[in-house]
Design goal:
By secondary structure, the protein is of the alpha+beta class. The protein has 4 helices and 6 strands; from the N terminus they run E-E-E-H-E-H-H-E-E-H.
């Protein structure tokens, strides 16, 4: 069983394998260890995936789920591969939260698919989460490159 540890602002984690950060919008869990099954693949969970989907839709405009997954895989250099069990729940969650809106349209292959676009609330949330993410990555960069 995987153990996760919560880090409060003044709390330091003594277990380096996993850590759990909470923010106002989502809980984020990152794995720093890799199993042989996932070696070379990036592991992401809910908070990061939501941010990635919102930014992809903002950049590319309305896309269906396959288009979102293909774009993220392309940008990652094939390090990231999203399956339906990962992406669809994220899309449903984001739509229920009002951060994206979906509409059924016909694809270029003449099939019906739900296309998603960022809502006004999603734009605001994306701005806030982008700022939080930049602060977090700045902190991680400073911590990882700090020399004794």
């Amino acid at each position: 069983m995987t153990e996760c540890y919560r880090l409060a602002p003044k709390d330091l984690c003594s277990k380096p394998a996993f850590f759990h950060l909470t923010c106002k919008w989502k809980s984020w869990i990152f794995s720093t260890g890799m199993s042989s099954e996932t070696e070379g693949r990036l592991q992401i969970l809910q908070g990061m995936l939501d941010l990635m989907v919102l930014q992809t839709l903002r950049t590319m405009g309305p896309l269906h789920a396959y288009g979102i997954a293909a774009r993220l895989q392309q940008l990652s250099g094939d390090s990231l591969s999203l399956n339906q069990g990962t992406l669809y729940p994220a899309l449903v969650r984001l739509e229920q939260q009002g951060l994206i809106k979906g509409a059924w349209r016909t694809t270029e292959n003449n099939r019906e698919a739900k296309y998603y676009a960022v809502s006004n609330a999603g734009e605001k949330a994306l701005e806030q989460e982008t700022q939080r993410w930049q602060r977090l990555t700045g902190l991680m960069d400073r911590l990882l490159w700090e020399r004794p």
